[in-house]
Design brief:
Layout lengths: L1 E5 L2 E6 L8 E4 L16 E3 L17 E5 L2 E5 L4 H4 L8 E7 L4 H11 L3 E3 L2 H4 L3 E4 L3 E7 L2 E7 L2 H24 L1
Parallel strand pairs: 4-6
Antiparallel strand pairs: 1-2, 2-3, 5-6, 7-11, 8-9, 9-10, 10-11
Length: about 180
């Protein structure tokens, strides 16, 4: 399909390569017009974020939701009200076979991380320590230790690093035996 100018008349040519005759339609007289768009965007705060009146220049932190040409900013806790999405906290636990000295692991992790703190025995039911205030390492038995953490990107990264160090210690123990 294309537009052709034949004898001063604009014609829309529609050829469909069939046995039927080609169809020529005269172009409609359309007046010239132009569209203007306002580039300014506005987002409304809703639910919990709307409870407090903001001052000029004050920032707001929330989740931006665009729906049907409108923008709304809401608190993450209000997401379940406006959608079928839900947010959850995931607690992760891994038990690793470890026959090395628990003190060696703690010493190794103190060399790597800024914060490795012992936990009281009442809180952890045995020797335990916390790495970066995110990950708890517990001595379960002579052959097992367990790691506990709430899943988020930083805690997952810390747990990966601790797991790798546990495996490195195990490799060193088995290579010297």
């Amino acid at each position: 399909m294309f537009m052709a100018d034949i004898a001063g008349v604009r014609v829309l040519y529609t050829g469909d390569y069939s046995r039927e005759e080609d169809c020529h339609l005269c172009a409609a007289e359309i007046p010239q017009f132009s569209l203007y768009f306002n580039s300014e965007k506005m987002a409304k705060t809703i639910r919990r974020l709307a409870e407090k009146t903001l001052e000029v220049g004050e920032s707001v932190s929330g989740l931006l939701v665009k729906k049907a040409f409108t923008c709304q900013i809401m608190a993450l806790d209000d997401l379940h009200v406006f959608s079928q999405l839900s947010t959850e906290n995931i607690s992760q636990r891994i038990t690793i076979a470890y026959n090395g000295a628990f003190g060696v692991l703690k010493h190794r992790l103190k060399q790597i991380f800024e914060s490795v703190e012992s936990l009281p025995d009442e809180e952890s039911e045995g020797p335990a320590f916390r790495v970066h205030e995110r990950l708890t390492v517990k001595y379960e038995s002579e052959k097992h230790i367990s790691l506990h953490w709430r899943s988020d990107p930083i805690s997952d990264m810390v747990s990966d690093s601790v797991i790798i160090n546990i495996l490195l210690i195990l490799i060193l123990i088995t290579s010297y035996c």
